[in-house]
């Protein structure tokens, strides 16, 4: 019996192997940064989401050590028992103040991960409510898809960036509680959702607009507040999710919204209630991370990142492959074929350049791609090296 179960798994794995869909992990021996060691070999990496180069920032590292001295290593319990620390309170207040100008009567809630924050928002706003309908953008992140499923409500998927199609769906809906949910920056494409139009629709139809700004928080907007600041939006309809393990360089995530939304999540959201609170030391380190994001250094790092994006776009001379039209740190090159994509990623790796090859099901069939991510930690020489390697590789 056991053998049969194992054989089934093994034949499925074999099938993935044959379709070039097996995923491999590589163990990194150094801090996340533009240069990382794998197997003793130094690589120039263009694959992390550490967009501002804060994951190995000495001041944040020092704050984390200080956090351990103040609060130890673990929280010991969930937030509603005894795991809610003063560091969590301070972080939530600081987050609410930081992204608050784009919300109304804002509060923020800190989560262990963005994945959990998204499950919490969608189940918390919808669960058990027979009159809820969720409208989900077709390229949304897996955590939003899973959150929508877990909410057990009626679910409609609208085509990518198709505001007119969404409007038709909202008009046709009889649900009293409507939730529109979208990535702000699409993680595999790098483009921005049409947030101003989506918000106008949500206000007209009395719907929530859940914005997952995992890739925009810290990188977009002149003060780094993210996509809402970038577009100059403010509304009590917005439920904003930002992650803290990408541009913020530490870990965890937060939801910011009108205080009644946040209180609802505290009372109802199972991914918030039934889990051990993140180590308070992380929240303490994030206080320093937010100071950097919102200060002069954050502004300089965002400007440098934008200069690198322009350098890459100006320098690439692609004929068969296609650089997607993105102005964010995510700069994907669509190759199409799975095997060719993985060969290109392997050839770069041979030369000491680490770029992620992304295949279905993470992206639609026949759109396998190199997902290049730039970071303020990169130098213009690093990007010049990447450009030269890509231009050469496409020709061979
Ligand atoms: C990374 C990501 C998440 C998940 O955040 P984690 O903190 O890594 O769990 C959610 N949404 C999007 C769009 C992401 O890119």
From TrEMBL:
GO biological process: biotin biosynthetic process
Chain residues that bind pyridoxal 5'-phosphate: 114-115, 187, 215, 243
Purpose: Catalyzes the decarboxylative condensation of pimeloyl-[acyl-carrier protein] and L-alanine to produce 8-amino-7-oxononanoate (AON), [acyl-carrier protein], and carbon dioxide.
Pathway(s) per entry: Cofactor biosynthesis; biotin biosynthesis
Keyword Nucleus: no
Subunit and partners: Homodimer.
Protein name, per record: 8-amino-7-oxononanoate synthase
EC number in record: 2.3.1.47
Species per Swiss-Prot/TrEMBL record: Pseudoduganella violacea
Cofactor(s) it depends on: pyridoxal 5'-phosphate
Keywords: Acyltransferase, Biotin biosynthesis, Pyridoxal phosphate, Transferase
N6-(pyridoxal phosphate)lysine modifications at: 246
SUPFAM superfamilies with a match to the protein in the record: PLP-dependent transferases
Sequence ranges assigned to domain Aminotransferase class I/classII large in this UniProt record: 42-390
Family classification: Belongs to the class-II pyridoxal-phosphate-dependent aminotransferase family. BioF subfamily.
Catalyses which reaction(s): 6-carboxyhexanoyl-[ACP] + L-alanine + H(+) = (8S)-8-amino-7-oxononanoate + holo-[ACP] + CO2
NCBIfam families listed in its UniProt record: bioF (TIGR00858)
Domain of life the protein comes from: Bacteria
Residue sites binding substrate per the record: 23, 141, 362
GO terms of molecular function: 8-amino-7-oxononanoate synthase activity; pyridoxal phosphate binding
UniProt gene name: bioF
